[in-house]
Structures
1.
Amino acid sequence: MKLACFVLLSVLFGSCLAAETAPPATAPRKGSYTETYDTLYNSLTVQREGSIVELRARSRRGEFLESAVDLDDPLRLIVPYSRSVFAAEFFLPNPKRVLMIGLGGAGIHRLFVAAHPEALIQSVELDAKVFELCRTRLGFQPTTNTPVAVMDGRMFIKRNREQWDWLILDAFRGGYVSPHLKTAEFYRECAARLSERGVFVSNLHETTALYYSDLKTITSVFPQVVLFHVPGTGNVVAFAVNYRTPVISDDSTWSADAEVAKPFAGRLNFSLIRNGIRPLPTKEIATAKVLTDDFAPVEFLNSVRTNNAAKDR
Amino acid sequence: MAVLGTLSMGFQLLASRLLAPHFGTSIIVWAWLISTFLAAFSLGSMLGGWICNAAPHVRQRLQVVTAAAGVVSLAVTALFGRVLLDRIEVAFLPVEAGDLQEVGGMSRALFVSCLCLFFVPVTALSSFSPQCVQYLAAHGTAPGAASGVVYGISTLGNIAGVMLTAFVLIPNEHLGLARLLLLWLVVAGVSLSGLILLLRAPNGRTAS
């Protein structure tokens, strides 16, 4: 009996130690189609209509559009919030090194590489299947300038000691982000990985109570935070920096639209992006709780709807 | 038994929160965490069965030793858990090591973490289930019925532990993980002490 138990446990632990991620098995596909995948971390739908391929994550609230790519024009940014992410150009134009936590369909990557061909954009994606679908369905081909690490974003931040000009956090799983990627401790780790004038970028949803705790937490770590609302959506993209001057909420300190737009060859309307700036909701932030590794009821805050939800529908 | 069941499974949720900043919340983390708890339930049950069959004076000492091991190890987790995880993370997942995606190193780190922080307390808590069966059987309950009652109540405690921890304790802004672990320590100490006193009650002897 004892021997049997020992053997059973040894086999169990041994198999875990030997576990490896399964290699990709699918090939690129053409024509219109809808496919569903249940991965280790997500329930995904990949849908192609014409040249547009959408990657959606299913959740109890329906399907969340994670990413979309026009295969005939991969530089076109289809998902609105991805355009607002490029507002980071206002604070630190022409970045040399970018870290993106959450690969999605790599919609941002293609335009970024076209605009900054010499720059590095490193991605971290937890779900190996997302990376596989990104390559086989959404036409993303990683290069030495666009490497992808399949691992937890926080572990990457802790173990990778490089400095980044832009650090973009966009690690949604169908409208949900793991609590350990929402805490003050994690944001401090991110802040420590920014270059001297580096910009931390986080895609947020203003439709739940988590939004205010998110902002409270980010503002507790970074001296300056600026928000850009994405019109017609519940998305707000937060930009934060480690320095106090110049004051980044004053748009006279930003790089000029024409200057930052140049590498994008008319693909982005920076005047429109600039107009998305909105003040911090200081009143709501005042009563929100800072999320920490000790206290982070992210799932519960994410289930409480705010008035912003109705406003944007 | 309901309280011990509550402590055991509630502790698993707290453990996941304790591990998350160091190792994330990936399927690898959950695989090690669940396996560790099941292994502790398994070993605890066998240990408890063995204690049941010891001579009364030896059995009483073993009960105290087991409960003390559970409380002390829980205290280590509550008071030094973060520090130990920092050390384990550095030892098994050194920043200098080039391969950021190494699954083996992560598994080794999780194995050591789970073993150091969670295995002993859960093993100790689980060891009392067979002793409660023995106690009821010695007090006139049929062995089969005694076993059913103890494991049924314990499992109801497990469910209560998960629901209470997930829906009430973790979202409570006045508690936080550090305080919850201390709460677990206090409740474990009190309930194990009470259980030992109960098991020592007259006629609470083994049938052997």
Note: Chain A touches chain B at residues 5, 9, 12-13, 16-17, 19-21, 40-41, 126, 149-156, 158-161, 178-180, 183, 185-186, 289, 292-297, 300 (CB under 8 Å).
2.
Amino acid sequence: MVETTGGEGDSRVEALRARLTRRDVIRGVAGTGIALSIAGFSRPGAHAQDASPTAGPPIKVAFVYVSPVGDLGWTWAHDQGRLALEQTLPNVETSYQESVPENPADAERVIRDFAQKGNQIVVTTSFGYMQPTINVAKDFPDTTFVHISGYMTAENVSTAFGKIEEPRYVSGLIAGKMTKSNQLGYVAAFPIPEVIRGINAFTLGVRKANPAATVKVVWTNTWFDPQKERQAADALLDGGADVITQHQDTAAPQQAAEARGAYGVGYDADMSPLAPKAVLTSPIWHWGVYYIDLVRQVQAGTWQSNQYWGGWKDGLVDLAPIAPMVPEDVRAMGETEAAKFRNGEQTIYTVFTGPLKDQSGEEKVPVGQAMTDEALLTMDWFVEGVEGDPTP
Amino acid sequence: MTQPQPAAASPEHPAVLRLEARAAPSQAVAVLVSIVSVALALLVGGLVLLASGEDPIAVYRVMFTGAFGSRSSLAETLVKTIPLLLTGLGVGIAFRMQLWNIGAEGQLYLGAIAATGIALFVLPDAPASVLIPAMVLAGLAGGAVCGAIPGFLRARLGVNEIITSLMLNYVAILLADQLVHGPWRNPVGFGFPGTEQLPDAAWLPRWGTTRVHLGLAFGLVAALLVWVVLRRTRWGYEIGVMGGNERAARYAGMATARNILLVMAFSGALAGLAGMSEVAGIGHQLQRNLSPGYGYTAIIVAWLGHLHPAGITLVAFLLAGLLVGGDQIQMSMGLPAAIAPMLQGTILFFLLGGEALGRYRLVRRSPSAGPRPRAEAR
């Protein structure tokens, strides 16, 4: 996959746009699949495999993880999805490899090995696996590959991601009400669009609830490193932050907040069991929603390469229960807002609707205008109210 | 590293068991020690596996097959061998001169940066016959510069090269990060870090359908070159003498400062070539996480290979197999991924421990024959 000229790049953006509009169709299909699986019934003809679950060899699905499954983090959330897949669908066999480095030599070897072992579906769950996934997919045209969080697709490679910014925004509304110092801290992994979008969504929520508050960002340059994450959180707490949130894969920042008597907003999974006195709520993932639908489509032979970007309404993302220490009025506000996202009244596009200013106060999105998918997917600037540098 | 201690124990610490240099470490003892070390490592690793309820034989078989059992697994082991071999040779030659180059990781990155820069910005339209040699030179030069800096500081100012070479690792890795997040970022990469892909002419040829690339030849040629330098050249002789006794070398009229600089640059150049070959042979772009720590693993490779080019080549291959085979424990057996590094650590621990016992021997002293009477000690 060599793309060096502007022309090819533009055509890719066009292709992306086309796929993005196709998402609605995919989402519809996903909804049907989930409804069926929850009800536990199968409709003869609609899903041939479901009608005879034990017939034929099992479908093999492999997962490549960037960190250990561990406790309540990104990989844990994906592994919950894998388990949901095994529990919901008959005749599915899964395997996985944890802590696969994101360098091309190791990642490609592991992905290739899973394909060679006869897995019909290989899911790679970190951005760094994008190019390796594409490379391997070329040699295994009959295998279905899904890369989480990237932008490259192929005939047999889909991408999938979720609008975690929606619950992040609501968590920001709550956090903005809970801060006393008006200084919030954000422990963030890498300055890439995914993380920058999340910081912006959170900050927009915070500032909506509390226009005087600011969000300070510290980059750790790692997805998973409890010690580094904790140090970053401590530095933010030292600087006066009294609510810590994160785009990291462990609960270490939440535990740092708890140790100082500060609040926190978790990520990936409900992190309150690991820091019950700190965690106000957590934007969370329900990957099973997507994985179950993916396997159904492959089994039914209806799967086509696509770029899935599921939202709160689809059930892919959610907000964990709001903690008891949050005052009743704030909790009610949070739940009201959450309900608007669940029913689709609000979306990532309403969150990112102008007027939006960048850190210098310059208007980036005019009043009433929603940001486009392309603008969101390539976001490399911070909104007003973020303290920090969106470049490393 | 560890100088053999004289036989007398210090009076304050009357040792019962102590290490004593073997008079003439024999080849037979070395081989025996290696075999016993591996056997012990597998035994202890097996006990841990048994304790966690797994069948050690099955685990070992899966690891072995995963590393050497098929054409594709063998190919992947060779892919992993390339950077370990080049960086191992690089640090090995520095260690021979008692120069502790801990900076192979950074030298690898600078080599990768230089080679990428040539391919993307200097000669993007050149044919492979021009571009690949140019990238090789750039990789060598990038690594050499990164090695020469601590070399210069050590040679001219006596600054400890362990610290400076180690610190330059962070500089080089952050420079690469800065480039792939900033000025070198792929303009159509949706804001994600990483350069665009190198032009096709920059891709090192591969062996059939495997990922084994021309870098393997670089590694083998480098091993031969290091052997020739050490065995057949005046410079190699000087390296040996300086490694034994720098002061003696200076009295003998050897240009010690120049040699320190040259050896550090040479050492860095080999690591830089490893970076170039990872970019041109595997990733085809400069990106974050180019190396999972090859420059540090190289230190183990060099020591286990007795700082000898042939030994380093063999150890790089076996260690690559150990790392590649380790993946299979989870992929094929569904066991926790942590078992692989645990087993790898156990095996390395016993090998390095056995290594010490090959060159030194444990001596038991009865207290009466040991230190002088306590009264004589002040």
Note: Chain A touches chain B through 49 residues (CB under 8 Å).
3.
Amino acid sequence: MAFAAFSSTSVVAEPAPRKKSRIALFLLLPGILYLVLFFLTPLVSLVLTSLQAPREFGDIGQYDYAFNWQNYVQVVDAYWPHILRSFGYALAATVFALAFSYPLAYFIGVKARRWPLLQSLMLVLVIAPFFISFLLRTLAWKQLLSDESFVITSLKALSLMAPDAHFTGTPAAVIFGLTYNFIPFMTLPLFTTLERLDTRYLEAGSDLYASPFQVFRKVTIPLSMPGIVAGTLLTFIPAAGDYVNASRDFLGGADTQMIGNVIEANFLVLQNYPAAAALSIILMAVILVIVGVYVKRSGTEELL
Amino acid sequence: MSGEGQAGTVVAGLFETENAETARGSRAPLPRPRRWSPSSWILPAYAILAFIFLLIPIAYTFIFSFNDSLKSNISWRGFTFDKWLNVCAVQNGAVCEAFANSIVIGVVATVVATILGTMIAIAIVRYRFRARSGISLLLFLPMATPEVVLGAGLAAQFLAFGVPKDMLTIILAHTMFCISFVVVTVKARVASLDPALEEAGRDLYGSPTQVFLRVTFPLLLPGIIAAALLSFALSFDDFIITNFNSGSVMTFPKYIYISASRGIPAEANVIASAVFLFAIALVLVAQISQAARRRKLAKQG
Amino acid sequence: MAASQFADSGADLTLVGIQKRFPGFTAIEDLNLEIPAGSFFALLGPSGCGKTTTLRLVAGLEEPTAGRILIGGKDVTSTKPHQRPVNTVFQSYALFPHMTILENVAFGLRRRKVSDPVNRAHEALRLVELDHLAARKPQQLSGGQQQRVALARAIVNRPALLLLDEPLGALDLKLRRQMQLELKTIQEEVGLTFLHVTHDQEEAMTMADTVAVMNKGQIEQMGAPEALYELPHTAFVANFLGQSNLFTGEVVESTSAVVAVDVAGIRVAVPVARAQRHAGAVTVGVRPEKLAIHRDAPPADSGTNVLGPGRVIDVSFSGVSTQYLVAIPGAGTIVVFSQNREFGPISHVGDDVWISWNVEHSFGLADVPDEVQRFAGDTDTKSIAAQRREALIAELED
């Protein structure tokens, strides 16, 4: 009987490849089609929109398809400070978030290994901010760091801050907000690599005459590189495109506007769709270039 | 980028009631405790301060949900339970309406994204096909694209085709960015699944459908639930993409954004705090029951 | 700092009153050990006996609860691992996966700012015959090659003391034998002090000049491999190093030449010099290969111990020799290894046979017989599993 079972499966197995590829197609098609329709073609629409020209004698917000590449020149000319600012703020926030998260992730991922429950609870604390609207969190910081707040009045009383200085509305406040909001995105990938860090490599390092600092620099850091790359990208990309923190109603001010604010204003308020689209394409292109170069230089291509 | 996936997997792993280990990868050996020294206190102390820092705005939001505020909820005017008891009373229920919209959008987008994403995840792990790398790239790109670009792109698309922006456009947008996260989370689970289990099912006379329903699906369920919870969380908190594709429809984050200039009512804090407490309770129950199971297993040897 | 220079030769290692407690259990209880410079010393014992902990204490990866560690006469007890003139070949090899083989080997040299690290690393790789793979990453090497790289990475630093933590455990038998030979040759060439930790008694005996058998955090017996094998002092050593037949009985005769014990009414003699205890209940033993099987009762003789008659209950052929199990009433089941000098077994299951051996081959143990069972049970898989489980529970409750 067993023999019969074998022979019958081998007969069935013959046409399997074709049947299997049909199953794969059935499984893939709906989702992939969805992404093509609602992710890929929108990107194409964005490119087409970015090249549109205003309709002759049309109303505000009416454009025709064209090859109006001057849109790009115009937006770069008008908004280059915003573009530079976006990447500057995002870079600063990424550096601060990395500096904040690395020791934390190291503690959770390596030092707390002996206590799995504590480790999980600390992870819950790291992602806890995810569970409360990030707009409310940002507004909370706005209130906590407003001119009348305890923190700022204390700093002023201690002469650590000029009496007429503000914190909210400054670039520092925007960078602070970006850093805070993206810390979990930095900590989690760092945690996942550090959790798998084999501490025997650290012992081998100290056995081979490396001081604790040298072990950290020569062994721990290189071994956690995948987490560092993932975390910095996860922070940098959304931070560069963010427009909530820099918004005037949140932590930003008149001269902290980022590229996201400009895209939002052009698209939703000024109805200058080509300008918004051109800025979006520029943002995406710059980010893809930065990601590509960064990943290549840090030697972690296998991440992609 | 697997990094984004890793973060997603960790978040998802916290929701899983079993086998978060497989999702988080095999555990490295335990470090041996080192000698006591002043420096051994630095990291724990730092971690405590870091957690306090992370939780400050949450505590603020929670405390101000009890503020006996008038229109805007900026200065402390006294403690009250009123806002918790009459959440929907303010502004003819605008907060509650926005909240309800967010729930509906989140549920529909989660269901669609979870189904589509799970199918892709199974196909990617179990089948060989052409255009594999192209498909991986297509799944990765939405996670590497700034939200403002995703939002503007979809909005440009809807504009080009003259689609009016309403609840449906928001759901379409949310489903789009959730799919990739579902794929990454479920993929980890499928990959950790021993194919021999399915082979055993087939060997024991199960038809392909029976094997899927009785073997594969139950084993994937924790991963699928985790992915669903993750995409609900992503959808519920999304503002940037929503803002571009919502027209006049209000969602909870959008309500906060728009009210920010004239002051947020304490009722918004109530809803956010309630959601927060519910999510944390869910995660803690999952974590503690998992720890209890682990302990029991260890006791049984 | 001693670590800033190359050691000209191996240094001696002295452990004084070492104790190591972990939360919940004591790994090492009052360990005293002296390893002379230039020797190849093996610490042998079952898992959980404290041998790896001892090694880690010497490397500085653990801190002793009490006691002192001296290397070359210098107290290093409170010295950090990177400041000790000691290198370790780890059980897992712990080759840095992000570096090439060459960079792995040069790592220690660079840390100590030794001149020309690259050439020295190449030299060390040539010694283990892997120089042609210097540019590869560790993952691209086989287990045996990785093991040799780990060895090169350690010996290139010319440490006063080289620690080997079961480095051959992951290799298959043939490769292990080959590596054992190579290790021994390298040790003789470079003249370092080797401290080798293993649970493989054959490995310990082939490689080491001196073997210390460890059990429950203490050294049971120490000596040259042959001496340990031929004259075990405890039942644990008698059974952990090879196999032994042990009999317990009261001492019935004690002269200047022999001590005789009554085993189920039969007199079994041990030379006085080979008996640890001379009165009361004593456990005596003999190695299975020292026994002879007789179809007829052999003539009584003061130079020979004879047991029997007994019945052969099992015969199993293993190529070079055949193992017989003989049940002798009152004395238990006795294992006999017999060289296959002829075709076919010399007796069959069910045969009535006698066992004899030269009195000179008997040994008397130091254990109090009541405790014998406790030691015997320590190495079986069940009790090791129980120990593991206890350790796991302790860890979880931590």
Note: The first helix of chain C runs from residue 51 to 59.
4.
Amino acid sequence: MKQYVIIGNGIAAAGCIEGIRSTDKDSKIIVVSEEKYPVYCRPLISYYLEGKTDLVKMNYRSSDYYEKMDCEVIYGHKAVKINKDSKEIILDDEKVIAYDAVCVASGSSPFVPPFAGLDTVEKKFSFMTIDDTLALEAAIDKNSKVLIIGAGLIGLKCAEGLKERVAEITVCDLANRVLSSILDDECAAMMQKNLEENGISFMLGDSAERFEKNTALMNSGKTVEFDVLVLAVGVRANTSLVKDAGGDVNRGIIINDKMETTIPNVYSAGDCTEGNDISLGANRVLAILPNAYMQGKCAGINMAGGDSIFDNAIPMNSIGFFGLHAMTAGSYFKENEGGEMYEEKGAGTLKRLFTRDGLLTGYILIGNTARAGIYTSLIRERTPLSSINFDLLKKDTTFAAFSRESRINKFGGAV
Amino acid sequence: MKRVYANEKWCLGCRLCEYNCAFANSGEVNMVKALKGKPIFPRIHVDGDESINFAVSCRHCKDPLCVKSCISGALSIKDGVICIDHNKCVGCLTCILVCPYGAVSEGKNGVVQKCELCLENSCGEPACVKGCPNNAIVYEER
């Protein structure tokens, strides 16, 4: 019998639990959960505000999940130290837990820049957790004016979630476009236009210089009056546990294809990690839910003595606002980096496929996203474009672009 | 486990499977009432070009990317069948982003739909297979 410890109780932790149990049905699993909730679907907090889900439906797994998985969950406490020599975790109440293998799935935390006067703002919120969401919900009413700092995925989903429940929403960002981490200028402009048509106001290339109670004084000299402030500037990977224990850490905890950190018996998964992005050929923090689950599962299998590798992580996002969907994946290399772009534009639709060295490396699809996974799979599998009819496939996501033989492989048996 | 397999040699591209699928999952008892003059929502899709046709539906993968990527916990595996809880789905379309077979699609009411082998509707076995005039889709163990 072994004892496994999982630090964190998000999607990566669930993947880890399921990975361990696929390999080892008997050993003890202890989950340390800082939040006082069973694992929930974090990206659904905006859908909760919008009324598209509720707190019960947001549970990621069934109500008897931990029982079925035979896990002990310690709620409301956080791990403060990994003692790698004695193989022990120390919690914030000084409790000591021994481990044979531990998975650090500590996630990320909102990054709040040191805005002058932020302490004078009464109603200010991050937007990461259920508790943030419930506090934000309690602070708004139909007359509220909301200022959101950050036009990334979190800030904009928050804006969409709040839209029907408040009077005004303004989103500002230092970047000169929305969703700057996943969209280029033209695609961002298309999404921004749709958001504006749905009543969201933007101040881009501008951010708060300081706050005076309910007023934001912007870098541009403008002022914004607000009742409620949402801080969605960005997130930082929670790396300190591994860093303090002497493990390699960059912007995230460094992991290899087995989800091992540089400390023996210490694994890591999810938003706290930094691993290889195969579309980029370099390390990157890939803080997205699918990777969290797949990394967690891989870590769990390996912790339990199995043999698992997760070696085709790429960034990928499906994000919609007010009915307009965008999907993005991989890396977009420019011409001077050896990349090429194929583009199609239609009424309310845009497709950009990025290729380099005979591979699809990334794409942006707006409006028409049907069967996008066929493109995603070309990136993840590093399919040589010479092996398919890419001229056909770039226009239409059809398996007619694949050889008959590869179709038989794909569709002829159990996969 | 039994799955739906297409035999492209026999497929006429008639799309009857799409109509039978949409009908079986419509909840209606009359095909005309279910489909005529309405947008239809089949979970099987006839793919191909001038020379070849074949029907594509969920492969019910053993290690499904869609289930692992689902942000709402709506997709799950039950006895090998990949099922969707339409009540939990929020229509984020992440499953469409990742499915390598292009076998998940947007359905009615802003949620996603996929083949569940007609095990959850009144048909009880794949309606696409039952209605295929040329045995170009079969439901069998391989």
Note: Chain B has a mean pLDDT of 95.
